Amino acid sequence: MRIKFKLNGRMVEVDVKPNELLINVLRDKLGLTGTKYGCGIGECGACTVLLDGEPVLSCLVLAVDVNGREVTTIEGLSKDHELDIVQRAFLEENAVQCGYCIPGFAIMAKKLMEEIREPSIDDIREYLRGNMCRCTGYINILRAIEKALTYRYAKKQFSPTSSDQ
Fold it and tell me: Which distant-in-sequence residues (6+ apart) come within 8 Å of 156 by Cβ?
């Protein structure tokens, strides 16, 4: 079956099998390897993407179900070769360790920032409850999200080559 959908702001078309999962299409057919395959049963959050603006676990979504819809992956957060404030804050706060879980955390942090203007630490933890990390202990991830919130209020712009020192 051929499906067509908006992926990170651009229309794409791809042939998929009826039982093919979105994560496999993203990684294997479209080359977007930022979305990670973790548990395969919707428990870890590493495969989180936005589907029509809402977080979903791409290991549980059939690719045919995104036909005519919009998908945003971790790669879609950056614009014009500039890191999103969430991505930049994760790097600055060393919240990446092995990095495997970070795409899912970053997607959820972005959604949190869209929905809650001034989230409490409890709000942040609630948004992250479906994401697991085995390396960081979560402290740097929480700090990164708090830093991204301060950047949002400061309306700072970042590029991978500029220094904010």
Answer: 85, 164
